[in-house]
Design goal:
- The chain is mainly alpha-helical and 360 residues long.
- The protein is built from 16 helices and 4 strands.
- It has a two-stranded parallel sheet. A two-stranded antiparallel ribbon has the order 2-3.
- Strand 2 (342-345) and strand 3 form a beta hairpin.
- Helix 2 (22-44) runs antiparallel to helix 14 and helix 8 packs antiparallel against helix 15 (286-308).
- It is globular and about 55 Å long.
- The two termini are 30 Å apart.
Length: 360
């Protein structure tokens, strides 16, 4: 009886729609853990002057190759070589559509190294939380859904937590200067790069979810991953070409620089993030993905304080508190976006009706 009472209270506090299955909850936790680990690994690989001893684009490109290898291997193992080839030919239209998120994800991944070199991990993740509100707007447009007032309230609270940290950052950079320049002192080129990351994250995430749940609802998820990574490799190769580093990135010196335990861990962790992100978007949604990213900052702040000695001031504590409240508000009325649920029976594909209208 006592256990049933506790369960009832929990259900009243948090909607059962937040994690519809045990698997979705596991994916949620794994997604957060991998991203927290990534921020710590990248920070640990920095030099004292915040530079890197390895070519970051080469690392990203090798990561995409690893993700493609893993996705293709799992897909072929599940379907067999003959059936796998047939699935590829049948879904070439979906393959073409994956260029858009691939390009944006490639830009996002490359910018992460640049921005983490400028900001500490906690500040970096807080600044990125502006993507939450933008994601809400893009989500409504792409899926033709309307978020409820409570959902928008939670998104705005989450953004407020980010602003608290950002204003504090600007005040420190001002170094006690006049108010006329202090508040805007944090506006610089690196903040612009953060905003570019925000756009890449928002549109790529929502569009990728749209492909997984709508246009490509009947396409195997690992095949869709492979489509994405083929385009990502092409985009990253193009980035190297534009930067004039296509040859030097694979020189003996560049390849030797990535033969390091920390760098190898970064590559493997990035690859795992890519696979888990697709599972997240398939079983949950891009709005909750933004909240997962926001929750990372709490754990990142504590771990970076323990590992790197990066201090946690009162502004960080206040920002974390606001984010926690926003997450609680959202958990009571989460977005439900199942998309076109597909049931495979032999060779038959039966898509069910897509959820539309007001998001609960």
């Amino acid at each position: 009886m006592r256990g049933d009472g506790a369960k009832t209270i929990c259900c009243n506090l948090v909607s059962s729609d937040l994690f519809p299955t045990t698997w979705s909850f596991i994916v949620f936790i794994l997604y957060m853990a991998l991203f927290i680990n990534q921020g710590i690994l990248v920070t640990a690989s920095k030099n004292s002057d915040n530079s890197f001893n390895y070519d970051v684009t080469t690392v990203v490109l090798l990561t995409e190759c690893l993700k493609l290898l893993v996705s293709a291997a799992v897909f072929i193992k599940s379907y067999g070589a003959a059936n796998a080839f047939s699935e590829v030919r049948k879904n070439l239209n979906v393959f073409q559509l994956y260029f858009v998120p691939a390009f944006l994800y490639s830009l996002y991944n490359n910018l992460q190294f640049v921005n983490l070199a400028e900001y500490d991990p906690t500040t970096y993740y807080l600044l990125l939380q502006f993507r939450v509100v933008v994601t809400g707007v893009v989500f409504q447009i792409v899926f033709k859904k309307t978020l409820s007032w409570k959902q928008w309230c939670s998104l705005l609270l989450l953004t407020a937590g980010c602003v608290v940290k950002e204003v504090r950052f600007g005040a420190i950079e001002a170094g006690g200067s006049s108010a006329s320049g202090g508040f805007f002192s944090f506006i610089n080129f690196h903040l612009l790069l953060i905003m570019v990351q925000v756009f890449c994250s928002c549109f790529a995430g929502v569009y990728n979810e749209f492909l997984l749940k709508d246009i490509g609802a009947d396409v195997p998820i690992m095949l869709q991953n492979a489509f994405l990574y083929v385009h990502s490799i092409t985009c990253n190769g193009a980035i190297l070409l534009v930067r004039g580093q296509l040859v030097s990135a694979f020189s003996a010196a560049s390849l030797r620089s990535i033969v390091d335990v920390k760098v190898i861990c970064i590559v493997c962790n990035y690859a795992a993030i890519g696979i888990v992100t697709s599972l997240f978007l398939k079983s949950l949604n891009s709005i909750l993905k933004s909240f997962a990213s926001a929750l990372e900052l709490m754990f990142t702040a504590v771990l970076c304080w323990i590992i790197f000695g990066i201090s946690i001031d009162v502004f960080t504590v206040v920002a974390i508190a606001i984010v926690s409240i926003a997450t609680f508000v959202y958990s009571q009325n989460p977005v439900v976006n199942k998309g076109k649920l597909v049931i495979r029976r032999s060779d038959e594909v039966v898509p069910t009706e897509q959820t539309t209208g007001l998001v609960r």
